[in-house]
Amino acid sequence: MSLTINLIGGALIALIIWWFWLSRSGQQKAAAATEEATIVVDAGVYTPSVVHARAGKPLTLHFDRRDPSPCAEQVVFHGLEVSEFLETGKTTTVRLNDLPPGEYRFTCQMQMYQGRLLVD
Ligand SMILES: [Cu+2]
Which InterPro entries match (predicted)? Predict the structure, then answer.
């Protein structure tokens, strides 16, 4: 009986280590240049809030809006002349093509939500 409990305990510890390791490697992936990303819009923050993209490549962003407050309803890409309305409870896809190198902010219309798009 105690052997079974020890095995379960060991398995749980292994699971916790694996989970932390996985979540950490996930964060590293978010910092790497990407051509597609999903951004959760909730509780006043974009997650992830920083997107790294390659210049001249298309970038597809899926905004998963979970915050019903009007504050979250629009995303504006400053310096790119792009903005989009986001529907609550749905995912809205924004496609950006031929991005010039630089750093661009993306925010809600009131600039409460803050994100950065890094292009190089
Ligand atoms: Cu806002």
Answer: Cupredoxin, EfeO_Cupredoxin
Angle at 82 between CA 43 and CA 74, to 5 degrees: 30
Same domain? For 66 and 107 the reply is: yes
Q: Are 12 and 78 in contact (CB under 8 A)?
A: no
Task: Give the CATH number, domain containing residue 77.
Answer: 2.60.40.420
Cα(76) to ligand 1 centroid in Å equals 10
14 & 42 share domain: no
The Å distance, Cα 66 to ligand 1 centre, comes to 13
pLDDT at 32: 87
Mean pLDDT confidence for 93-118: 96
Q: Is 20 helix (H, G, I), strand (E, B) or coil?
A: helix
Ligand 1 geometric centre to CA of 78 (Å): 14
Distance 27 CA to ligand 1 centre (A): 25
Specify whether 26 is located in the same domain as 71.
Answer: no
pLDDT at 78: 97
